[in-house]
Amino acid sequence: MKTILAFGDSLTFGANPQPNGQRHAYEDRWPTALETALGGKARVIAEGLGGRTTVFDDFSNAADRNGARVLPTLLESHKPLDLVIIMLGTNDLKVYLNGTAFGAAMGIKRLVQIVRTHPYDAGMPVPQVIVVAPPLTVETDHVDLHPMFAPRADEAKLFDFYYSRVANELGAGYFNAASVAVADRADGVHLDPANTRAIGEGLAPLVTQMLGL
């Protein structure tokens, strides 16, 4: 059986856009939907943390949100891996962090490099990589997330352009989650259960092709 690491933020965690809403049920999170769609041919390990960025520090949070710093540890703790799916960048757009889709794409590029150059044990495969451009943020009147993300809404529209270019340059797989999922206007960032599942279901054909399932 193949092993896949789903590396992401609150969208991978399954955050609920409704005020005080509970985390989405296990079966509604996209890594679970992907595993189900693969019909038992692969195990998908979900590593989602709300607020996680590609490579940028955010000291306003209690836990380490810098994806580049934690990724090597995850590659070690979950080895051997056949595929790493990276869906990050939304938090990079926060007005007080990087704030640009290009900067997020450069962060994604670094994460792919980390996956490919990690010192795996002898005989272990170097995982393949799929880069996923996150769904777009949408207009909301949420008291915190509107000022945090709304000024960078146009930047989010550039994810597909920059991420696909990075994936093509590095020979990684590419999927645009905005092609299947739309954020909920309750907070403008997170997804309802159906849109969350849609990402996993949408990824299944590409994962099947890349892993020869």
β-strand amount? 5-15%
N-to-C series of helices and strands: EHHEHEHEHHHEH
Classify the helix fraction into a percent range.
25-40%
Report the major sheet: 5 strands, parallel
How far is it from the N-terminal to the C-terminal residue, by CA? 10 Å
Shape designation: globular
Rg (C-alpha, Å): 16 Å
The helix-and-strand class reads alpha/beta
The count of strands amounts to: 5
**Sheet with the most strands: spatial strand order:** 2-1-3-4-5
What is the count of DSSP helices, taking H or I runs of 4+ residues? 8
- Pick out the low-confidence regions: none
Overall pLDDT level = 93
Explain what the structure shows.
The chain has 8 helices and 5 strands, in the order βααβαβαβαααβα. The chain has 213 residues and is of the alpha/beta class. The protein has a 5-stranded parallel β-sheet, sandwiched between helices. The termini are close together. 47% of the residues are buried.
